[in-house]
Structure formats: structure tokens, C-alpha cells
Amino acid sequence: MKDRIENLLNEINALTADVPEELERLRLKYLSKKGLVSVLFDEFRNIPADQKKEIGQLLNQLKNATLEKIEILKSSFTITEETADQGIDLSRPVAHMEPGTRHPLSIVRNEIIRIFAQIGYTVAEGPEIEDDWHNFSALNFPPEHPARDMQDTFFIAKDPAILLRTHTSSVQIRTMETEKPPIRKIFPGRVFRNEAISARAHCIFHQVEGLYVDRNVSFMDLKQTLLYFAREMFGESTEIRLRPSFFPFTEPSGELDVSCNICGGKGCNICKYTGWVEILGCGMVDPAVLENCGIDSNIYTGFAFGMGIERITLLKYQVKDLRLFFENDLRFLKQFTGTI
Ligand code: PHE
Q1: Does 94 map to a domain?
Q2: Residue 157 included in any domain
Q3: Ligand 1 atom closest to residue 281's alpha carbon, by position in its atom list
Q4: Closest Cα to atom 5 of ligand 1
Q5: Atom from ligand 1 closest to the CA of residue 169
Q6: Fewer beta carbons under 10 A from the terminal one: N or C of the chain?
Q7: pLDDT tens-digit map of 158-205
């Protein structure tokens, strides 16, 4: 008898119930008239008198333990008075929650910031609605200069002096106007161009601009900085190549290609079978631009570079269509779960 009581006690202690119906079934199994606990009480009659005291105590313990266990299981289903007052039913299943993910463009922007922070660059931002001076004139785009056609500008309210910035180079100007060299900064931000939306172009996109102004800054510093960036971003075996180019605000100007990280330089449709992909524009800050901002170009030199975050992201994650970045399709965004 003692063993049976002990076994039953262990069994009852281990009980669980997920739904109220199951709990009721358990209650009947142990406590109804023919239940396993009740049956032991029936048998109590036949226990020899000298054992009655001990067995009786054990049986009472068993019964109390069973009642207590049923109460505990029941409380997990019961609405307390307090929660009932608030109309909250704690027994209802919770709505399925999706953990958020960082947008791929934010991931890459943060990575660019991290890479440049390691070599002493700090972040600054400027306004998206700009004036002609900061977006064009101070950057050496003369009025009516055809270079202004390079970037199809959104003007605001027919006032050509106010516009949506077409590049983050405007923040270079704002920084040089207000700070003395040495300046070592990067400027991430959204830019706008009146372009037809396609797999390779959008009217809104993101850039990160870099600027370094100090005594004796040379083209060699620019090249070394870009090599460091390319290898941090695309891997240690990445090679770079600079091609001559033109921007009104840099002289000389260049465009930077990196060895295609998709085919490893062998040739694929991303690099159009050349083994190289263009990732940014750069150059030595034109002395006239330094002077426009009140920096003595006889003492100081500088370099600048600007890259599209979308383009870097396309290459890094092999995304084929830039429109995916703006559609917020969860099937796309979820692929970046777990990436910081
Ligand atoms: N602002 C240029 C563009 O948007 C990029 C650039 C930045 C080029 C800095 C040179 C120096 O195309």
C-alpha cells in the first residue's frame, strides 16, 4: 500500500495539462468516485488496525497533493479578477511575432561607417533640401555649365535656387565652411535625381561621401585609403584600379574600379566580362572649392570620394535589381536576418 501511494504521488507531481479539457480528464482519473486516489481510500478499510494511523496520514497527504496540483494547473487557465477587469485573457495564444531585420542598405551604410571610423573618420550629415550654392556653385559648377546636366535635378517650387540635393558633396561644402582643417569626415545620406526607375537606377538613392583636408594630403593618400576601404568591404584579395574621370569639384578626378568579387576577376555578367566593377568617384579637392569655403589652398590640400550605397550593396549581396531595396517585400528583407 505504501509503495502504491508513493508511486501515485510521483505520478501526480509530474502531471501537466495544456488545455482545460485535459485537466478535467485528469481530475476524473484521480479524484472521481472510481478514481485512482479514491480507490485507495476504499481499500483503507482493509488495512490492519496497527497500520491505519501511518497509512491514513499518507493517504491524506496524497489527496491534498492531488487537489493542490489540480489547482495549480487550473490557475494557468483561469482569468484572474484583475486581468478580467481589464478585459485581458491571459490564456489566449499570443499573436505570432516576427523579429525585425536591418535593411540591407543600413547594414552596408553601417559597415562603411565602421570601416572609415577605424582610420579616424567621423560622421556628419546635411539637409536633403539644398540651395544651389552648396549643391552646385560652391562645387565649381558655373551657371549654365553643361556639367549640371550630369545630374538631373528636382527643383522645388519652380525656384532653381532650392532643390533636392543630387549628391552628398553638398555636405563637403557645409563642413569646410564651418570647420578648420584637419578635416576627416564621411557624409552618409539620401540623394535625389530625376531619373526613370529601372533595375539599375532610381530617383532616390543613398551615397556616402568622404573628405580629408589637411597639410600635404596627396593623391597617394587617396589611393591608399581607397585600397584599404575596398579590401575591408570586399575581402583581402580585392584589387583596385583608378581611371581618369571628370568632376567639376575635383582635379584630378578618377573613378575607382574593384576586381569583381563575384567571379574573382575571371569575368561574369555583373562585371560585363571585364573582371572590374566601378564603385565610386573621387579626386583631389579643386583649390577653387577650398577657396569657396574659406580654406587657404596654398596651405591645405584634400581629397574627396563619393559612392552609392545601393551599388555597393548590389555587389556585396549579389542583388540583381535595385528596386528591391525600396519595395519592402518581406521575402527579400528576411534574407538579411541575423546580419548586423
Ligand atoms: N558627387 C559625385 C557623384 O555624385 C561623386 C564624387 C564625390 C566624386 C566626391 C568625386 C569626389 O557622382
Answers
A1: no
A2: yes
A3: 8
A4: 306
A5: 1
A6: C
A7: 777 889 999 999 999 999 999 999 999 999 999 999 889 988 889 999
